[in-house]
Design a protein that fits this description.
By secondary structure, the protein is α/β, with parallel strands linked by helices. Helix 6 crosses helix 7. Specifically methylates guanosine-37 in various tRNAs.
Amino acid sequence: MIIETLSVFPEMFDTVMSTSILGRAKASGLFQFHAYNLRDWTHDRHRTVDDEPYGGGQGMLMKVEPLATAIEDIASTGPRPHVIFFTPCGTPFNQQVAERLSYEERILMVCGRYEGMDERAYEYADERLSIGDYVLTGGELPAMVVADSVVRLLPGALGDEMSNVDESFATQAGGGLLEYEQYTRPATFNGNSVPDVLLSGDHAKVDAWRRKNAIERTCRWRPDLIDTADLSPEETRFARELIERYHVIPSE
């Protein structure tokens, strides 16, 4: 896989892309990364990438010309990239989107700044994404989030290939639930003990407990996920009872 970013601050990616799982995966050749500087596609001595919006208003907008030229130049070499723009009107980014993107051969993430972009720049997007309903200074942080989520799904990135399956929101064995509680030594801390079943050595009982616990945690903390989770009829009934217990609906 090839992951690329187009930004006015390409240096922001240096540490993230060379540390921890991302760094090891890149060093192992599981993916290639390049951060492009948008200012390299400007033609004035100030390397200008923004201008005042027509009609007035606060702030500055990113100009369409350098964005269009940069994307076209980058895409002209190698396999055509899947071009992603970050915007509040984009598709919400989640684990399912990450799984889909992990099959792309090449991804180019365009990172906005200032008050946004000239609307005509979005014609070059294959996909618009949003990582949440809040305001950030630029698109670099969303690009890092997407890169981290996607790279950890590449075969060999985590070492233990079952790690991705059991994680929260995973659409495989996890069934779209939050991950179950986990514990390590000591077995007792400040009077709070690890559940006995996890110390039993009975793998069938452990698996059953983890499944039930994942449903319980999801019902308590993210009940909105239950409607799309992969549950049996019995588990669905159990989940509904828990949701009523944790989230009492006031009577009219």
